[in-house]
# Entry
Amino acid sequence: MTAPGRRSSTFSRLLRHGFTDPSAAERLLDGPELTGVRNDPVLLEALGATADPDLALHGLVRLLEAQPAPTARRELLDTVIAAKPLRDRLLGVLGASAALAEHLARHAGDWQALVMYEPRDLHPGVEEFERGLAEADDPVSLRVAYRRCLLSIAARDVCGTTDIAETAAELADLATATLRAALAIARAAAPDDAALCRLAVIAMGKCGGHELNYVSDVDVIFVGEAVEGADEGKALRSATKLASHMMRICSETTVEGSIWPVDANLRPEGRNGPLVRTLASHLAYYQRWAKTWEFQALLKARPVAGDIELGEEYISALEPLVWKAAERENFVADVQKMRRRVVENIPVAEVERELKLGPGGLRDVEFAVQLLQLVHGRADASLRSGTTLDALQALAAGGYVGRDDAVQLDDAYRFLRSMEHRIQLYRLRRTHLVPEDDADQRRIGRSLGLRTDPVVELNREWKRHTSVVRRLHEKLFYRPLLDAVAQLASGETRLSPEAARERLVALGYADPAAALRHLEALASGVTRKAAIQRTLLPVLLGWFADSADPDAGLLNFRKVSDALGKTPWYLRLLRDEGAAAENLARVLSAGRLAPDLLMRAPEAVALLGDSDGGLEPRGRAALEQEILAGVSRADGATQAVTAARGVRRRELFRTCAADIVGSYGTETQPAEADQGALVDRVGGAVSDLNAATLAGTLRAVVRDTWGDTLPTRFAVIGMGRFGGHELGYGSDADVLFVHEPRNGVPEQSASEAANKVVTEMRRLLLLPSADPPLLIDADLRPEGKSGPLVRTLKSYEAYYRRWSLVWESQALLRAEVVAGDEDLGQRFIELIDPLRYPAEGLGDDAVREIRRLKARMESERLPRGADPKLHTKLGPGGLSDVEWVVQLMQLQHGWVEPGLRTTRTREALAAACAAELIAGEDAEILDEAWVLATRVRNAVMLVRGRAGDTFPTDPRELAAVGRYLGYGPGHVGDMLDDYRRTARRARAVVETLFYGA
# Structure
């Protein structure tokens, strides 16, 4: 029995050497396998130097137990104690990989592969690995030999003999040798097939790029040809059998597990295409059908097995096409599509643990390098390497990326790949997720040399490197452009003007010459402004390029910068407020309306960085209070209304900016998923803003002529979308004017005063100005354009009692007081309620009249030449369809269903559904169509700067509408198809509910 003091001493020694379970380690050391060496300080020191001493000790004991005889066990122990190179290699592997420890336990003699290292063994290549696999003649023996070779690679890796790039290259060379061995086994099993064909195996992906992981799919493409005199069809069938058998040899699970999956899905047509094609067939496909990503994949193509001469012919034939990919018509759209990181398929809980696909992950580095290769490699052959780090070094040497950026990116990529290798090495499983368990993170951290506090240090270094990648990912594209135009540092290699133009074109800039001029104006010089903008522009340019009109974004930024660049708060805002710069980039590149509003008062850019709800719409009360305060301070009606219109312009910008940011999303905040909420927010904000503007204008006009009191009470009634809180950016303000003479004021005098008010309000709101006009439309008044602009409440009562038509009752469904005398307005609402919610509903004649009016409107009011299926207002399933269905239900049932007594379309539709007047599914279809049509109209106004009811015809404007609606580059067709489908479904509901079909 061990004395307590001694046990405590051993326990403490084990803790000092990094064991996490000293009690279990003591039991293993006291076991018969380690008799004679359990107290050897050399052994404990060596175990303590491994990534996981507990794992290493457990693996060593299992390996000793597996030895076939005591002499073999003694030989292993003696070698471990006496030979430091073996000790470090063997224990290093056992402490890093449970899977390789399991292999050694099953194949007890394979530890001998780690005993001797000749100089040529330090960096073996394909030839050495082929010798190591030479005796394998079936899938099982191939797996055993493969693992034996893998042992030596892992040993060099964990001992630091090779760096990450050399380890990845060795793994790719071992894969090459393995593919050759597997093909040889397949050929030996089918000599007749082998005799008929030439078969070349082309490595793709990381294997082709000479940068393979420990466990990864090995991507390949097969090229086949008939031998001389053989039938091509039979030869291709034979080649396909050989290729399929070779894939199974590597991929299938045996008693020794599998090696890795062989994936041929990068071939032409993917899974749907033939596994093996002739060279001519490959060439025809790439010339005619291939997409940009397929040429990107070919950057790493390399013949590795089979008929190498045929493989070289394949590379020679396709290489010119790869370097012309950047000239393709759809290259920019494809690049934009590929650059938008696809993380939505990663479970939310895993995004932050993803080394490969997560933000700042390996994919970001690899994509950036490959894109720059495609753009500049056509003119510079030095960039045509399939290996990421070699290509990055060449890009830096050629001035295509900044040298400092390249060094930081190289460092980050090496660290992330090292993490990935250590994670995969443990179980030899294909994964890119950082484990959550502290024990796993401790092992990974120690394996990377982080020994003080491995878990904390690992997470700190990991986050630091991903942060570097995220920061440099965009700057990598754009910083060299700034260096090329700013010309501050001498002696550094810079992009040539032609290379700079090529890069801008590849990233979506239609006028690269103008873009370079803007960059030069923004980034040149030694002022604080230029220095800050040089820091900001690489990121801003990336956000501009993510839009449908990067040129406009850059031009607009230059204009804003010219206007505000000397104000300290502007540069400080962009530098210090993380959201402000991205919000500004989104707003400036999303279309014409928001930038136009901003240019008229650039100081409104401050709203973009206000973290205290800067983009949240302000309520009507707050707006009215601000406008009325401005009116009270103004000198005369003209100045007062100018002040009111200035507030309106600023608030319109706020609403536009919030809409754009909500629709596009940001790097930290995804796009708003609820499209209806976006529509309601815009409609409510613009309606409140116009109401407050009218209230301020009314106050200004009254004060300028009559002082504090108008001779007649006066109210403004909102109609149409205004009354329904559904105004778009380009909507007119539909209104009715009502007045009531004050006591003792003759009706004639009151009427003249009311008419003068209306005339003056309309004039002031349309005066030429930097502010957008507000058009007041009173055509929904009794008798239309032929009737008086303003009536008394009694006149309205008399007219509606005697002459009112059914369409006027329908129009009054949207009536709501928006400005002026609240009491008078409410009495007007009480007057019209019986008309819009008639007792017992509508009679049959009235229903027929409404249907007749709707049919006539559809046939007469649609603009000539417009595509009805894409007309958002009057087309089938458009706004008019949905609104007339809802309004018919309000007219028929509003008298008995209080929920229908609302001016808002979506609220009324929801109330009708709740009252079971419409099926839930039909209500959802109508709501979706109404929201989509409204969003399209808003998008058109944002993009074009003028209202429109149909999709733009200009491709760039159409793409911008698509981006606003959530469609990525190249998906305009999907957007139009989705709109037609949504409208068609809505029209079917309308036919049933409105026309009774």
In short: The chain has a mean pLDDT of 91.
